[in-house]
Specification:
The chain is an all-alpha fold. The chain has 4 domains: 55-188, no CATH class; 226-328, no CATH class; 332-397, no CATH class; 400-487, no CATH class. Helix content is 70%, strand content 0%. The longest helix has 55 residues, at 5-59. It is elongated and about 95 Å long.
Length: 487
């Protein structure tokens, strides 16, 4: 079969010319973008040199009509370029934020961002499309979402309350990035009237009606609202769908944690929470059919007045699900629950080891009374697993050092009996390391201050303890050497 050289040559030349043209176009675009970038940076530098003193005066409270008019005379893109560093520097104090919001209003930026958020971008010339960095974002419809997302972000940074309806509408934007930014802005603004709309979308996300907004992101946004909006969660807490109830109680828990973060003695009561919601927690959610709801409800109930919450929490300590008991015993680690020490101590014998571990940590957090209950249990129980768990926790939390500081106060004191029991169990590595390495404890032990015993008596007790530890350590080293020789 004869080869057709001429058609193949033409095809090869056509491909070569196409490749060269493509390379030339790419080089031209790169040169154009480089020129555009240099021009943009040069203009930004000159703008900041000319207008930055004006901005400083306006932000400092020196409002001047001439200064505002000078900035409004600039094109919109240059006004945005000038204010962008102010919006990108992170969290600002409320007073400075209010001043910045007023300035952006006077410069027409807020109105421009609101128009862009609903898809009404300004029309720009072909020359501006080529010379401005964001020019293509205005021209190419598929890239408009960047402008909408940027506008939603700026409105959220400024905490612009009147923009909340537009941000709620932006949750239905066709692009998921705009939805996510609008959700974060609503969480930053925390407008109470937007709360029901977010709850409605949370229901839709859980039921599968809103695929782009995840329940986790909606829950985080709702959890940032103040506790005064918690009453609006009542329909969700009573919803027949268990996952909606779980997410609703999780949101309430986050609200309570935020409110309690600044006050260690925080009590969840009126005006923080309505009586109706309190009754639902104490008589409804604590016995919900879903154990996840019961466990999270226990963490919220623990912040209520102990007179009402203690009986409910003690009942939840006997829940059939171990993770409900775990959350409950952790929630009881507050000084006002000292009356529940006996019930917490019973959790030390729980069938699940994580509940036992949490009970140890809770008792140690309840000051001297809780620690005494824990040490009494340690001395009385014969369960080796429970003893080893207690030893691990008191060593991890440094409680052994506190025991050593009081060692030698009295022959039958609780601290002496615990230390002696540790020696009998050969759990001496930590004791030996503390006595040999922590000079502060050894010196405080030598100079007795708290008991009525002579300093020499305490010093002798410490010396005997150290000798016992060294003997135990030597016997174990010898035993290991014998085992190696036997092997």
């Amino acid at each position: 079969m004869p080869l057709h050289i001429e058609p193949m040559t033409r095809l090869a030349l056509a491909v070569l010319v196409s490749v060269l043209l493509g390379i030339g176009v790419l080089i031209g675009v790169a040169i154009l973008r480089r020129w555009q970038q240099e021009r943009f940076l040069e203009r930004a530098r000159s703008l900041r040199q000319q207008c930055w003193p004006i901005l400083v005066r306006l932000l400092g409270g020196g409002h001047s009509t001439e200064d505002v008019a000078a900035l409004r005379a600039l094109p919109l893109a240059e006004r945005e370029m000038l204010c962008e560093p102010l919006l990108s520097r992170g969290h600002s104090p409320p007073i400075q934020l209010a001043t910045l919001q007023e300035l952006c209003t006077e410069l027409g930026l807020l109105e421009a961002w609101q128009r862009r958020l609903i898809g009404q971008s300004e029309t720009i010339s072909f020359y501006d499309t080529l010379t401005r960095p964001e020019g293509l974002l205005h021209r190419v419809r598929s890239l408009n979402f960047v402008l909408r997302a940027h506008s939603a972000r700026n409105l959220g940074i400024l905490r612009h309350q009147p923009s909340w309806p537009l941000l709620v509408k932006a949750l239905d934007d066709p692009h998921p990035d705009v939805q996510s930014v609008a959700l974060r802005s609503l969480a930053a603004i925390r407008e109470p009237r937007s709360f029901p709309a977010l709850v409605e979308r949370l229901h839709g996300a859980i039921l599968g009606h809103l695929p782009h907004l995840s329940p986790g992101s909606l829950k985080a946004a709702l959890g940032s609202f103040p506790l005064s909006d918690a009453v609006k969660l009542m329909p969700s807490l009573r919803h027949p769908h268990p996952q909606i109830r779980v997410q609703a109680i999780d949101i309430l828990r986050e609200m309570v944690y935020y409110a309690a973060a600044a006050d260690k003695e925080f009590v969840l009561e009126t005006p923080h929470i309505s009586q109706e919601l309190t009754n639902l927690l104490l008589t409804g959610l604590n016995c919900d059919e879903d154990p996840e709801v019961r466990g999270r409800a226990a963490e919220v109930i623990a912040h209520l007045d102990s007179a009402f919450s203690t009986p409910v929490l003690c009942e939840l300590l006997h829940d059939p699900k171990w993770f409900v008991r775990l959350r409950t015993v952790r929630a009881l680690a507050k000084p006002r629950y000292l009356t529940a020490l006996a019930e917490i101590r019973q959790c030390l014998t729980d069938p699940h080891w994580r509940v036992c571990e949490a009970a140890v940590q809770t008792l140690l957090a309840l000051r001297l009374e809780g620690a005494s209950q824990l040490l009494e249990h340690f001395l009385r129980t014969r369960d080796r697993a429970s003893r080893e768990l207690i030893i691990k926790e008191i060593e991890r939390l440094g409680f052994v050092s506190a025991l050593l500081e009081r060692y030698g106060d009295g022959r039958d004191s609780l601290e002496n009996r615990v230390i002696d029991e540790l020696v009998n169990m050969h759990a001496t590595n930590y004791l030996f390391a503390v006595l040999k390495g922590n000079r502060r404890i050894r010196i405080r032990g030598m100079s007795h201050r708290e008991s009525g015993l002579p300093a020499d008596s305490q010093k002798q007790a410490r010396s005997r303890l150290l000798a016992s530890l060294e003997a135990d350590r030597a016997s174990r080293v010898l035993a290991r050497a014998h085992s190696k020789l036997a092997a």
